[in-house]
Write a structure and sequence with these properties.
eight-stranded antiparallel β-barrel; mainly beta; single chain; 18 strands; 42% strand; 5 helices; Lipocalin; 11% helix; DUF4905 domain-containing protein
Length: 295
Amino acid sequence: MNLFEILKKIPESQTTDGPIPSYLYGAFRRKSISFFNGLTDENTIVYWFQSRSFTIDLRLKHRTETPAHERQGWIGHTLWDTEQELLSWQVADASNYQNHVQWPEPAKLHAIGNCILEFSPSNVYVEDWRQQVHSGLYLGLRLKTAVDVERGEQLNMDGGLIICDQHVAYTLTRLPEIQNIMSHLDLTADGLKTNNIEHIESFEVSIGTDGQTKYYSTSSKQSDQPFNFDAFEIIDDSTLKQRTSLNGRQIDLIFDIDIYQPNYLFQQQTCTTPSSEHWLKSEESHLLHHAKLTL
């Protein structure tokens, strides 16, 4: 059954509360990153999709021409330090496209309007993220178990699907036997060998902005291909199963429903003081003359 038909048959999440502030829910594209040395990058393609308790992240220098060993993508549990108000991520080795942690610092966050400003505690960088969605379907599915259908064998894999209206992020990690090979390689050196490229790319993080097509991906074969929303089944109100084919093997993917809201309102504005609102209104002919919503 198609996923969207399935969603009509299951109840929405009774609560959206999670371990992180709700202003972080949604699909964010990085507008810029500025470093301590004065340099700023406004061109690297970076997406951060946030479900209630997990994150999908994709980073590419170029949509189609980023070398395989330089692509970045991962899926991980999202952690929130309430006392210090710091965001961090728990990413297993097999849940990372690369073989090392590229972003070791937690994040200090500040929300203004539709943007999230992320400051590294060491002040080595600040990132400007922009919310891409206003309202619509909000679904987070996190892979619980992957099973080889023919062998009845559980596979050590990770994955997930996050849908925020028309923005979609999908992740499925490498098959265990391939990940075991990749985990012993230095991707910057060994990864350049032709026979390793297909194995490296088999870790998929794909992003779409039209609800249907994988426009950005760590996998060259998946770029511009449709998302697979078919062959889903209901196990119970909190668990779905999808049968898929991977390297010629039939695999059952068992997903926990992390969040499901048919029509969720994502944060696009933040609060300020009445006096500040009055100031903006009184000075809007100057302050808002060139202002527009920027995603």
